[in-house]
Amino acid sequence: MKTLLCLLVAATVGAVLEWVGVPQGLLLGSILATAIIVAKSGFAPTLRFGLGYVQVALGIATGLMFQAWDSNTAVALLPSLGLLLLCLTAQIVVAGFWLCKVSGWNLKDSLLAVYPGALAAVFDLLESERASSKVIVVHLVRLLFITVLVSLCVTGKTAISAGDSSPWLVSTLLILLSLIALCLALGRLLLRFGVPAPFMLTAIVLTGVYVRSGYLPGFHMPQWSIDVASVLLGVLIGAKFSDISLKELLSHGRSGVMSVGLMLLVAAGFAAVAWQILGSDTLTLWLAYMPGAIETISIVAFSGGLNVVFILSHHLVRMVVLHFAPALLIQARRWRESADRG
Length: 342
Fold this sequence. Notes:
Blueprint: H1 2-19, H2 25-41, H3 50-63, H4 71-102, H5 107-114, H6 120-125, H7 133-153, H8 170-191, H9 198-212, H10 223-239, H11 246-278, H12 282-288, H13 294-304, H14 308-341
Helix pairs in contact: 1-2, 1-10, 2-10, 3-9, 3-10, 4-5, 4-11, 4-14, 5-7, 7-11, 8-9, 11-12, 12-14, 13-14
């Protein structure tokens, strides 16, 4: 009941901010309302399937855009993807160096704090049972900072509505249900290996396969599904404040802001270079080179009318490099240890 009430309050505050013209008001209002509720009451809403819905909804909406995907588009992405890998390396080096040398953190905490993605795989790789509070603060600051900054930078509004879709026939509904079932099944499999945003990954890839195979012609995700995802994501982000005390937030918040700011500046620098070389839009490139927050960037890119496929293609590569590779190293290490014992 408390969780439902929190959702209603978050949706109401978000709708009000959206109505008065605040950029991404639905998302930011939900974060603000939930953070206040958590701080005042000590209650943290639990949305067991909330993140799964966000990932599947946004993943399907992104995959539907692969209707226009062709080999020329893929080839055009390659130079930018190469710059992305250099950008990720520079982000880790610059922000990690600042935390290590200026803030006086040890090397392990510095690298964990600036790791541009989810922590699950790298924690296992480094045999760390839990991160220190300051590492968690940096990742919370990164998530919140990117969400607010990107939301304020992208002020456009696109029309993803039910009116743009073909009629919802029984056959369309059955195909959609089969797609969702496959996304959930394969996503749970990836989840066992510590892969972040696994349901979004499977939803994007499988929807692209469905679309290229001629299924779901003319279908678009209705706007209400994206709006629900915005509210749920806002509540999930706001609820994270229950894990961090105000003292910890104030104590390590400055380091978090500085390190995240450096990572975003590096991303902006590489976006400027890519703009000179490739001629693409600088804001789109900057969002593509962001160090994380794929669900937030997806929502903002959709509502801003940006090239979502281009942006999320970069984030998918980032996830593969930063999470599949550590997961493979973990499995290889375990197999080697098992062989040594045998």
